[in-house]
Amino acid sequence: MSQPLLSLKGLTKAYPGVIANNEISFDIGEGEVHALLGENGAGKSTLVKMIYGLVKPDSGGMTLRGAPYAPSEPRVARADGIAMVFQHFSLFDALNVAENIALGMENPPALRDLASRIREVSETYGLPLDPFRTVGDLSAGERQRVEIIRCLLQDPKLLIMDEPTSVLTPQEVEILFKTLQQLKAEGTSILYISHKLEEIRTLCDTATILRLGQVVGDCIPRETTARQMAEMMVGSSLKTPERSGRTLGPVALDITGLSVSSPTEFGTALKNLHLIVRVGEILGIGGVAGNGQEELLGVLSGEITTDAGAVKMAGQPIGRMGPTARRQLGVLTAPEERLGHAAAPDMSLTENALLTGVVRERLESHGFLKWGAARGFAERIIQAFDVRTPGPENAARSLSGGNLQKFVIGREVLQDPKVLVVNQPTWGVDAAAAASIRQALLDLAAGGAAVICISQDLDELMEIADNFAALNEGRLSEPRPTEGLSVDEIGLMMGGAHGMEVAHA
Amino acid sequence: MDLSDIDPIKLIATLMVAATPLLLAAIGELVVEKAGVLNLGVEGMMITGAISGFAVAVETGSPWLGFLAAAAGGALLSVLFAILTQVALANHVASGLALTLFGLGLSALIGQSYGGQKPPPMAEVDLGPLNDLPVVGPILFGHDPILYLSLGLVAAVWAVLKYSRMGLVLRAVGENHDAAHALGYKVVRIRVLAILFGGACAGLGGAYISLIRVPQWTDGMTAGVGWIALALVVFASWKPWRVLAGAYLFGGVTVLQFNLQGVGIAIPVEYLSMSPYVITIIVLVLLSRDKSSAPGSLGRIFHASS
């Protein structure tokens, strides 16, 4: 067997209170697509940060083609041929594509030469991109292309991809996979991190599975079922959400002919939007981020007010009501952005529980707060949704993304909503926790609530939603029953792959 | 009242002098804000520059050394701000306000013995026959070297931000410091350097008031120019040439209202005195309506979490 490209030996990294990585060892071969699997907090991010030079290991070492490799900073890693596409895109909105790419290179050529090289590479790999467009105006898929091209321009030996497909349409995923296969054929190794096990089965040659900072196993994904891999990640058998037969009741909430402009600069306006959700129904709204999801959530939560009659709850006009008045009526929302929108980062979990629960949980009397009751409410959320934290007095910021997500969803679910609107309910949450959040949404609907679930995870929507509609550039498609809907049809409802007309022309 | 007493050529020449302190301070602050730092201490750094420049010029007899000392003084005061915000991670707004109060007090203390003195004059640049050209001569030529330096700085800042690698990295740090850090750029180091540059520019602007424009020392003589510089950067949408236009507009209205006061126009003096501030802000607000493009990380505290 030939020498591996990169081999990790006993990498250990501890943070106060936790060992993020404990004696991690594995090899990545030349031209191999290697998957790294694990739940939230399993230590995947820390591990790739060590490979990319952002974090120094406490002990252990790496060798690159047999030579010792210990990058002190990302530019050393880049110089050695390691490139990384980040989970949360590390792009600069106000700069154009070429400038963004230049920033990720050691010795970028003059912008004009760079622009022609960008065009060249983007055509070779079927990723069309205009070098002079402002990144803030691009779709998520196009932004990812910027990151990938930034890496490709440096002829990487190893490309690290952290959850690359979570924001792409199915067509865009297909294009990405073609690109990755082409790279692999050219001898580039890829370290691929994802929650989506089916993707790993189609793309990856080998997989290493992490749990609680340790390597717990490896497998050949093509010969392993998704379920087996999930169980290796979780360490126990996995429960899939059960959907019981539900009968749909009267209309719980409807929106008719709504058009609003976006309150933010790079936002999307909603155009002539119609939506109906019935008691007992889960309406799934798919679509790529940035197509009006934020705005739709704002309209439903009351952050964006409209004509009174445009939004109606059980026939009662609520378009002019603010969020608190709507909460009183039972319309609750859990926005996508955890830190800053759904939760106040520096306030404790008790305070955060209070912020949305004060109305329905009666945590206030005569203008004074009932701290005891608020704390009890926070503890109930922590208990019911298995939020891993030492206690409700901890700041929201101190929780990992997945744990905080469980908290913000749980907080709304436990308030007995009549209509619940969630945006990306399982974003960044591991398989087991995602299953329990989905189960909670299903139970809620079975108990007589109407749920609107905005998500980019199509598998999730297929699993829980009764009807599916797609948001594309601020327009909502006609909803269709999820049963019998194929991936291709969904892709078309979502508007196909953005900006791909060029590639097919 | 006789408006024909106002000589337009002389007016334009003096407006350039009147605008230079503002221009220097604002172009420095523009660089600081482009790097994502909001330093509200411009007024404090200006007045510190004004007194350190004045003191050194008087003691040494050299206006050049004075300006050098002014830049050093402004930069030195900004080090304090850099330590507070970049190392101790203190709030930008509070630190900047404290810097202004501190600078005003410190300058008054140093300046106690300098009241009523005359600084050595700075020779105007002699361009020979160019000075004698009609109209253009008195407007464009025959100014002091610092005024040309300020124009050169605007052009240099514009070119560096737009065309150079250094400028691109600086803008990137201001736009999204987490992403810049992830790519391996030294966010804190770049910001500290930008803060020092801003401090030096503000110091030069202050010394231009005490050494050339007035020229003498009185307490609090910067009279709010530092605050106007801050507003100017925002309303100029962080664009160097708009800063220049805004500064010259401000200078122009200032000089014009002095002249109008001189010829005894029937508008109360208070209205005339406030007019430069009001007009500059109104014009710049109208100009900046298109797209206010504040750097994405402006005023946010950067904490390098690993």
UniProtKB/TrEMBL annotation, chain A:
Pfam families: ABC_tran. It is a peripheral membrane protein. Transmembrane segments: none annotated. The keyword Repeat applies. One of its GO terms (molecular function) is ATP binding. SUPFAM superfamilies: P-loop containing nucleoside triphosphate hydrolases. It is found in: Cell membrane. Residues 6-237, 253-498 form the ABC transporter domain. The keyword Cell membrane applies. InterPro entries: AAA+_ATPase, ABC_carbohydrate_import_ATPase, ABC_transporter-like_ATP-bd, ABC_transporter-like_CS, P-loop_NTPase. GO terms for cellular component: plasma membrane. PROSITE patterns: ABC_TRANSPORTER_1, ABC_TRANSPORTER_2. Keywords: ATP-binding, Cell membrane, Membrane, Nucleotide-binding, Repeat, Sugar transport, Translocase, Transport. This is ABC transporter. It comes from Pseudodonghicola xiamenensis.
Automatic annotation (TrEMBL), chain B:
It is found in: Cell membrane. Coiled coil: none annotated. The keyword Membrane applies. It is a multi-pass membrane protein. Pfam families: BPD_transp_2. Keywords: Cell membrane, Membrane, Transmembrane, Transmembrane helix. The chain crosses the membrane at residues 12-32, 37-58, 64-84, 96-115, 135-161, 192-214, 220-238, 245-265, 271-288. One of its GO terms (molecular function) is transmembrane transporter activity. Its main location: membrane. GO terms for cellular component: plasma membrane. This is ABC transporter permease.
